[in-house]
Amino acid sequence: MNSSISDPQRREHAASFGAAAQAYRRGRPTYPRTAVQWVVPASARTVLDLGAGTGKFTELLVGAGLEVVAVEPSAGMREQLSDAVPAAAVHDGTAEAIPLPDASVDAVVMAQAWHWVNPETAVPEVARVLRPGGTLGLVWNIRDSAEPWVAELDELLQHHSRQDVDTAPALGAPFSEAERAEFRWVHTLTRAALLDMVASRSYVIVLSGPERAELLGNVAELLDSHPDLAGHDEINLPYVTRCTRAVRK
Ligand SMILES: C[S@@+](CC[C@H](N)C(=O)[O-])C[C@H]1O[C@@H](n2cnc3c(N)ncnc32)[C@H](O)[C@@H]1O
After folding, report:
1. Looking at ligand 1, which residue's alpha carbon is closest to its atom 9?
2. Is the pLDDT of residue 214 over 60?
3. What pLDDT score does 3 carry?
4. Any idea where the Methyltransferase type domain is (predicted)?
5. Domain range for residue 70?
6. What pLDDT, on a 0 to 100 scale, did the predictor assign at position 4?
7. Pocket probe mutation, ligand 1, options 39, 54, 57, 72, max atoms within 8 Å of Cβ
């Protein structure tokens, strides 16, 4: 995912989320409905949410009337997911080892998580569980740093880790050429939820206690002092949701 961290660090970050599952559930954004409609074809009935986390995307799939299976490797995240989205069938597993039969789902989605997988193993494994003609959809919420205070926030966060996530990955056979789309929207959240959003980033979870406290202190100072934010009960955080979809041939 990130050219500035090593493979062992990447595995540590990918496995870190369970430790901050409650902050993740409270602070991370949902996704725009338009993105859900774009990545899941209208004909789909059974959908797999891969790397489902605490269920931020899963609940939108259930809300769209789909039959949803969620696969997530972290026990802490699965606990939040089962509580938040009881209508989804939740399983332990990864994108590289999906606990589902061959050709059993119409669509697979992975929100904010494809950058943690090994595509050499995950692409054939996703293709295995998809019915021919089924769709793989990948989604990322990216903070829109055209807003000056968001650029300042990103600078504080990048001091600890530069995240160079490829949000337009190549998939290759047996998938068709990927299509891309972007959706702009605003996440309105409280000051406490914004601090939870920061605390639930993988590279913040793995910091030492003092480093994490210092970073959260710096973010709190930005929220209290920036003229666009100080004294506001609600914060409008702009996002661009970047999507990829490809059809299994
Ligand atoms: C940033 S969270 C995204 C969670 C959820 N999809 C969302 O949109 O909120 C990334 C998730 O990917 C999971 N994950 C990490 N490596 C994975 C892998 N190889 N296969 C599937 N999921 C993985 C993590 O446990 C974590 O829950």
Report:
1. 56
2. yes
3. 44
4. 48-136
5. 7-141+163-185+239-247
6. 60
7. 72
